[in-house]
Design brief:
The protein is built from five helices and ten strands, in the order ββαααβββββαβαββ. It is an alpha+beta fold. The strands form two sheets. A five-stranded antiparallel beta sheet has the order 1-5-4-3-2. Strands 6, 7, 8, 9 and 10 form a five-stranded mixed beta sheet that branches.
């Protein structure tokens, strides 16, 4: 497992040509709007500023009873909220464009980084199991649990890590389309890489609000 920076890509999303016998099975990237909502929480930020605008409007009206002053207070809060949401959406869009997820028959590769391009190489031997989560908008996340002795940087690889797993960060394919299909591809590749199928660990479907279970299996 390694994290490296690079300026040249002989193959899109990969820092070097594939070795003999290694085959590229799938490549993809996050959907930027889903990434904005799931990782950057733009919907929560928009809701916060909407509540802030209502509070400013109510407090201004109660103290001045002037419609123009109340409209100014509400307008300034909404303008500030719009700017913040637009900035977060821009960062999410740039992040999605700079990200490439790759699955080969030997490893999982995550290339990311807006200003500095980084590549996270995860050989299948480092992956213990995986969780797949399907969202109602058709996207989902595929998180890889690494063996305990394997660690990656949470902040350095954000947002391509599973949220709230700080002590043992899990590399995650965020906001991908057709997540069940991708999980099936990864699961088949993991199973094919195992010498003894008895050590396989099935995927666990995440049961979170706004999600539904995935009809896929991933082993490691």
């Amino acid at each position: 497992m390694s994290l490296s920076e690079h300026d040249y890509e002989p193959i899109r999303g990969l820092p070097a040509l594939l070795p003999a016998g290694e085959i590229l099975l799938w490549q993809g990237a996050p959907r930027w709007w889903s990434l904005a909502r799931q990782a950057f929480r733009v919907n929560w930020v928009a809701g916060y500023f909407a509540c802030l605008a209502l509070w400013h409007g109510a407090s201004t009206w109660s103290s001045t009873h002037q419609g123009w002053a109340t409209a100014q207070a509400v307008g300034l809060s909404l303008l500030l909220g719009t700017c913040v949401v637009a900035l977060l959406s821009l960062v999410a869009w740039r992040s999605a464009r700079a990200t490439v997820y790759s699955i080969t028959n030997r490893r999982l590769v995550i290339r990311h980084g807006i200003s500095l391009s980084l590549t996270l190489n995860l050989p299948f031997s480092r992956i213990q199991s995986a969780d797949v989560c399907l969202r109602r908008d058709g996207t989902g996340e595929l998180s890889c649990k690494l063996h305990r002795q394997q660690r990656i940087g949470y902040v350095l690889n954000w947002p391509h890590v599973r949220p709230r797993h700080l002590l043992q960060p899990q590399p995650t394919l965020r906001a991908i389309g057709s997540p069940a299909v991708v999980a099936e591809i990864l699961g088949s590749a993991l199973q094919a890489s195992l010498r003894t199928p008895a050590h396989a660990t099935p995927v666990r479907s995440l049961e979170n609000p706004g999600t539904r279970s995935a009809p896929a299996s991933v082993a490691a």
